[in-house]
Amino acid sequence: MTKLNRRVFILSGLAAAGAVGLPHLAGAATAPSPRAAGDPFQLGVASGDPRPDGLVLWTRLASKPLDIGGGMGSAPLDVQWEMATDEAFADVVASGTETATEADGFSVHAEPAGLPAGAEFFYRFKQGTFISPVGRTRTAPAAGTDPGSMKIALASCQHFEEGWYHAHRFLAADEPDLVLFLGDYMYEKQSGRDTVRGYVDFDEVDKLDEYRLRYAQTKLDPGLKAAHAVAPWLTVYDDHELANNWWGGQSGWPDDRKSASFRAYWENMPLPKSMKPTGPSIPLYRRVGWGTLARFHMMDTRQHRWEQAPNGDCDEIHRTDRTLTGAAQEQWLLDGLAAGGSKWDLLGQQVFFAGRDGDGETGSCDVSEDAWDGYHASRQRIAQGWLDRQVRNPVVLTGDVHRHWANDLRLDYFDHDAPLIGTEFVTTSITSTGQPGSSDPPPDYVQFNPHLNYVGNQRGYVRATITGTELTAEFVQVSSVVEPDPAKVTSSVSRRFVVEDGRPGLQDG
Ligand SMILES: [Fe+2]
Fold first, then answer.
1. Which of 42, 133, 431, 462 is the most buried (most CB within 10 A)?
2. Are 505 and 408 spatial neighbours (Cβ–Cβ below 8 Å)?
3. 30: exposed, middle or buried (Cβ count in 10 Å: 0-12, 13-18, 19+)
4. Which whole number is the average pLDDT over 75-96?
């Protein structure tokens, strides 16, 4: 059996097979519990935010996923979970019960603790007589230990209407140790393009029930379910989880819409209970270590930023007090970098970091005001922070722009001889903007910005292997997002780059 076939077997077949035994799940129920009206596990299972001794196990009950309320009624329901070291659940190492409530959209965020570090586990849920699919996950290596290597995948931007999630099936077949989802998990608006499938109801969502329904429909895709079930995810949002290009605390988006968006985001992601929002804010930025090998600084580049500068307004763009991160998050990041202790420091974040000037002129500001180019001083403080703190290998991991990019980072992007100080990998969309046209040329940016080594207009994801000596990244493309039949879709590597330990910048791999 191929890896992918084996995984599909695990995800579909073992759930039913496991229902025969289930000594632990059956034993965990001490009293009769209300039972869902139909299979409540149609949105799949997920795990996230791995630590050396714990992580988050997620599911969200929905017997009728495309109905408001998910067909779950209003009564709380007990959900049992168990974790084992084997796929047959012979060696169960942790189990428990969570209560799913209407107030939390019937989401479950179980947080097993006291687990062994750097270990693989399998998990599943039970509600009444229903058993969930089986997921695979792992804890992070212990602090101070060297895991030798790790495999990660980067994904972002998956407009449900604009394509089939074939990329996620290939990502799942890679069986990475960790998946970083870098924003635009779903879109608040319908597509204006040719579509392969439609959102139910609603033009633009802005209420909690509508956001919940949008996530539910997104999660019905089997490719996405497979990717969630194969590895722990670290997720951050971008703009479309709330509204296009939203920014900061005092933006034009009302508090009740922000509250609804953040609440639905937490309910639908494998995030810990400690991140559950109680109003129009969510504590999103956080750090996950992978022994002495790597640290992932997951950033929030929406909630704390200033408003985007007016188009081409150099005076505003170059203001030294402009911020994309907010002061608190910037200090948190710089303090974390100063702590050292890991070979690779990876910033998981949403918007394009490298300079990307449309005309190559220093006197104009032909840039994307929504990206770091529009927050010049904010980017400089972080880049200078790498140098001041002697960060060994800073690597920025980015989504948002629906293109693959590989970029060398400098302090001054107009000085083409300035030393390289870091590296950026930008993952393209899973589906957003749909099937690329063969006539679509690369953006003009490339000719004015020699630090931009590669741009690819494809749909797909990035996979990378990190070791003590190098980081190897592969830009994966899928042959089609409009072909519905998975058997007719292939994946391939469009480019491969290597970053050597202690030597910033891209080498051909
Ligand atoms: Fe997007």
1. 431
2. yes
3. exposed
4. 97
Give residue 398 CA to ligand 1 midpoint distance, Å. Answer: 11
What is the identity of the amino acid at 279?
G
Does the pLDDT at position 178 exceed 80?
Answer: yes
> What's the whole-number mean pLDDT along residues 466-490?
98
Domain residue spans of the chain: 1-139, 140-508
Could you please state the CATH topology (level 3) that the domain comprising 1-139 is classified under: Immunoglobulin-like (2.60.40)
Protein residues placing their CB within 5 Å of the ion ligand 1: 157, 184, 432
Q: What is the residue-wise DSSP string for 25-62?
A: HHHH--S-----SS--BTT-EEEEEEETTEEEEEEE-B
**Residue 405 Cα, ligand 1 centroid: separation in angstroms?**
15
Q: How many Å lie between the centroid of ligand 1 and the Cα of residue 495? A: 22
How far lies 431's CA from each of 144, 186, 193, 310, 399, in Å? 39, 11, 12, 29, 12
Determine contact, residues 352/345, Cβ cutoff 8 Å. no
**Residue 195 contacts residue 162 (beta carbons within 8 Å):** yes
Interval between CA 157 and ligand 1 midpoint (Å): 4
- Confidence (pLDDT) at 193: 87
Distance 476 CA to ligand 1 centre (A): 18
What spacing in Å lies between the alpha carbon of 54 and ligand 1's midpoint?
A: 31
Task: Classify residue 142 by its DSSP letter.
Answer: P
Q: How far is the CA of 311 from the centre of ligand 1 (A)?
A: 20
The CATH code that applies to domain 140-508 is 3.60.21.70
Residues in the chain: 509
Cβ atoms within 10 Å of 51's Cβ, excluding its own: 18
Q: Output the CA 70–ligand 1 centroid distance in Å.
A: 26
At 186, list the tokens.
Answer: 């779903």
Enter the pTM of the model: 0.94
